[in-house]
Every structure is written in C-alpha cells, then in structure tokens.
Amino acid sequence: MTSKKEIMSYLKQEILSLALKPGSMISETALSERFQLSRTPIRDVLKQLSLEQYVDIYPKKGNLVSYIDLESVEQVIYLRNVLEKEIMKSLAGNIPLKGLHELRGNLAQQQQCIEQAEGAGLFLQLDDQFHRTMFGLAGREFLWGVLQQFNVHYIRYRKLHMLKDEKLATIQQEHQQLLDYIVQGDTTGIDELLHHHLRADIDSMNFQEHFATYIKK
Amino acid sequence: MTSKKEIMSYLKQEILSLALKPGSMISETALSERFQLSRTPIRDVLKQLSLEQYVDIYPKKGNLVSYIDLESVEQVIYLRNVLEKEIMKSLAGNIPLKGLHELRGNLAQQQQCIEQAEGAGLFLQLDDQFHRTMFGLAGREFLWGVLQQFNVHYIRYRKLHMLKDEKLATIQQEHQQLLDYIVQGDTTGIDELLHHHLRADIDSMNFQEHFATYIKK
DNA sequence: TATGATCATCTTGTATACAAGTTAGGATTC
DNA sequence: GAATCCTAACTTGTATACAAGATGATCATA
C-alpha cells in the first residue's frame, strides 16, 4: 500500500522534526509490519537513509537514528557561508526583478510569521526557501542540492538552537539587510555581514549541556 | 570470498578509470556469478553506487554505468574553486612548516612525474593529494570528503580532458605559484590566480565532440 | 552474595524462489 | 514485402526462509 518513496520521506520528516529522537532504534521487522511490506524494500530505504546519515547501521545489532554530529554542523555552516557569500556577491547589482519580488515576498511572510508566533516550523521553511531562491537565481541550484544531502545534522541543530533562543527576529532583519546590500551592489557590506552571520556559536557549552542526549560523543 | 567493500571499491575504480565505459550495463546476475555471491549483497553495492551516481538504475531494465554529466562537472568545479580560494586565503601567511614541506615535496614529485612522462594517472593522484593536504591543513578535511562524493563526473572528465591536452605542466606551475602566494601571504594574488584556474573550458565544443559517447545528453 | 556460563531471543546479513515489467525477435496475417 | 501481435528471454523488484552475530536474563556454582 505504501511505496518506498513515501516511507522514506515519512521517516526523513520524522527524524528531521525530532519526532524520532536520536538514538531511537528503527527495527526492520517493526517497519515491515507497520507498512505491510517485506523486509527487502525496507532495507533499501534504511540503506539510503544511512548513506545520508539519517541512520547509523550497526551490523547484527540494529539501526539507530543518528546522533547530531556537531562537527558536521560546523562544517556545513562553513560551507553554506562560503558559498552564499560568493553567490550573493555574484547577484549584487544585477539581481533579476522577478527574483527580487520573490525574495521580498518571502521576507514579508517571515515577518508575519514572527509577529503571529505561528511556530518556528514555518519560519524555518521560509528561511530555507529564501536561501534556495538565492542559489537558484545564481544558477547554483545543484549546489543547494549538495548542501541538502549533508543537512541532517545541521537541520536538527538549527531547530533546537533557534527554538531555544528565539533569534528569529534577528535572522529576519539580517536577511533584509543582505537583500538591500544586493540591490545596492554593496559587496563589502555582504562580506562583513555574512562573516559573522552563520558563524553560530557552536561551541557554546550551553547547547551541549541542554541537549546532551541528542549529541554524538 | 570477496566482500562487499572489496567489490564496491573494485567497481568504483573500474568506473573512474573508464575501464567500464559510460553506458555499459552492469547486470546483477553477472556480478553475482563473477564474485560468487548472491544477488542480495550485490544489489546493496549497486544501490550505493547509484546514490553516488556511479550507476544509473533503470527499474526492470538494467543498471548502466552513468554517463558523464557536464552540468555536474561545472558545478563541482565551481564548488572546489570557491572553497579552495577561501581555504588558501585562510592559510596565507600562517601555514604550518610541516605542511609546507609536505606540499613542496608533493610538487617536486609532480615535477618528476611530468619529466619522466610516467603517465598521467600518477600525476592526477598527486594533484588530489596536494589539494587534500590543503583542506586538511585548514581543518576542512570533512569538506574534502563532501567533494569526493560528487566527484564521479568530475574525475572522469578531468581524466579525458587532461590526457587530451597534456596541460599537466601548466597545472603544476600554477600550484607552485599558489603555494608561493600562500607563503608570502598574498591573498589578492591567490584570488586572481584561482579566478581562472579551475574555470576550465567546459563548454569547449571540442570536448563534447570528441567524447560524445561518454556524455549525458 | 557474587560470578560466570549457557541459552533463548533479539537483531541484521544472505540465499533463493517467485513476481512483474521490458525488450527483441519471430511467426502470423494482411 | 510490411506491419502487427505474441511470446520467450532477459532484466530488476519482492517475499521469505535460513544463517549468524549480539545481547541479556537465568540458572548453576563457588
């Protein structure tokens, strides 16, 4: 009844939303019964999930939802930072009007989202859309896809980190500023702002203490 | 007799070296008989290879060695370019002595390799090692790993492209120059040199004509 | 009581039979 | 001869039985 693709996106969502907590066990037979499918296709799904680091497979022991790897988070943030800096500079001064409207619309929605406190879930979705649009406008959607494949740890980290500190407003303002710089063609402004933008305080002991049970040791 | 890991690295090597040509069919049963293993573990290997784009799986039809995707090549080159520019600038002026020796040694070997015309295979290996060392010195080995996972198309393209034009000497000289800039802490020099370094002429019709049978349409 | 071995029962890994889609070639028909 | 349909032979996808390692509880023993 349920196809492999559906099962996969279902599990991905559950893991990314932290509904399935890091360290939880995902047994093949359990999934098999739950989705009324034999173990073989279930294994295919788990294999793929493990390659994308959603799941850690311990042979003959079991499949665990991966713990958040802070090293991976830091590296991915750096990668995003470097890429976006370059992409925004390439857009500076010559951003298509259509794209500009889309981005402005997005930021407006983000603003609404904050005022109405509709939950951070939607905001994060809009945030992703904002960055993705940037990549698209620069002809780098491919690289956005690359980032997505290494996002498991980053997305979960971000979810916890943002919910904790409610920095949403700050982020929205920074986005607004970035867009202004792009329109004005102010590349040095972009450089300076992005320099500390995504350099989130990973090593804040605060975070590690709070979510110790989610983190890879 | 042969383990999954061995089969995988074996197939990877055959594909990267173009011993298995793009478009070649890789049948599960054939591999099964060849390596004396049942289809199940073979399928695991093929699944992973397809996720890393070594292989394209056409359901109920067959598994083909992937054609070289020039779009992917261009994007990966861009990614490398952006990352390395940032990494080298971070190393500029404060590169560890030990690392410097390693890089110089590597360049010397590259030089030898060219003079003795030992075949480009070794040169490309040294080239990879050079860049990898850079990443390592900057604490970005993780990102080198990321690049590797999207390298199938790039590596094969590079192999054909370089063998064809024998630009090896040029590349080696550029590396030498880059290293000098790093030692001197000349970040603008790095910027300028890298700007056109990896921007290989992908869209050279020459290449597409020559290797049409290898290229994804 | 503490300790250690045994074994039942988990888990995933592999082999194999069968289902089902695809394709190419030949027989049939016009 | 040309077109069409059918079939046989591929291919991968799925289900299932069995192999084999890991784990923990239980029971025997010092």
Automatic annotation (TrEMBL), chains A, B:
Q: Which domain of life is it from?
A: Bacteria
Q: What is the protein name for this chain?
A: FCD domain-containing protein
Tell me the Pfam families matching this sequence. FCD, GntR
Show the PANTHER family listed in the entry. GLUCONATE OPERON TRANSCRIPTIONAL REPRESSOR (PTHR43537:SF24), TRANSCRIPTIONAL REGULATOR, GNTR FAMILY (PTHR43537)
Cite the entry's keywords alphabetically: DNA-binding, Transcription, Transcription regulation
DNA-binding as a keyword of this entry, yes or no, is yes
Q: Which InterPro entries match?
A: GntR_C, TF_FadR/GntR_C, Tscrpt_reg_HTH_GntR, WH-like_DNA-bd_sf, WH_DNA-bd_sf
Domain named HTH gntR-type: which ranges?
A: 1-68
Q: Which organism is it from?
A: Paenibacillus phytohabitans
